[in-house]
Amino acid sequence: xxxxxxxxxxxxxxxxxxxxxxxxxxxxxxxxxxxxxxxxxxxxxxxxxxxxxxxxxxxxxxxxxxxxxxxxxxxxxxxxxxxxxxxxxxxxxxxxxxxxxxxxxxxxxxxxxxxxxxxxxxxxxxxxxxxxxxxxxxxxxxxxxxxxxxxxxxxxxxxxxxxxxxxxxxxxxxxxxxxxxxxxxxxxxxxxxxxxxxxxxxxxxxxxxxxxxxxxxxxxxxxxxxxxxxxxxxxxxxxxxxxxxxxxxxxxxxxxxx
Length: 258
Hints:
Layout: E1 11-17, E2 22-26, H1 30-37, E3 43-48, E4 55-57, E5 62-65, H2 70-74, E6 83-89, H3 92-96, H4 100-112, E7 128-133, E8 138-143, H5 147-164, E9 166-168, E10 174-176, H6 184-188, H7 191-196, E11 198-201, E12 206-207, E13 211-218, H8 225-235, E14 242-247, E15 252-257
Antiparallel strand pairs: 1-2, 1-11, 2-8, 3-5, 3-6, 4-5, 6-7, 7-8, 9-10, 11-13, 12-13, 13-14, 14-15
Helix pairs in contact: 1-5
Protein name: Oxalate:formate antiporter
């Protein structure tokens, strides 16, 4: 088992490449991505996958997943696929019009997990390109609008918090704690940290009745997530570089740079 697999739910690594509009991440899974963004996705063209219920497109010789089957795909254990890469598109007819050069670029994108040109195509009108190896372990995701990513990571952090602790209530019924949603503007205040490569550690939160603190460390640029996790383990023994703080009384979030 790779380092950190057991902790994937409780640790997020983010390295933002703003100019080229992609994010390398650890700890954000396809099911989380899809849950938040499904209303923005029409269909997806599969570049690397093992999904058995896709539909074959003869012009590109690739499988695709129409909107009505995306819920089924989101329930699959896509991390077991190994490589899982796709690009969204609006109209199936647009796939018939793709030129050989574009298809070659898409094949390169899925295989190498890098672009020959930033992968947003007028014919497809795509919003994302999603490139993963052992989904949640290594993800490289392109966003046509990077503000979408900030909304996604806020949702992911809030959901991970809700799974941390289950409180007993009356009659022994257990209920997940609900946390105030993290505002997008709060996360955007950490943009410079994301550009350097940062870790958000849900597993090391400190909380009491009055506040909750999530530590953040700058750890650098990693494509190898074993190396990233080793660096995190070293850094986590030192003081953190910033904190996300929730005041439980006012229900307001803030970022504190240390």
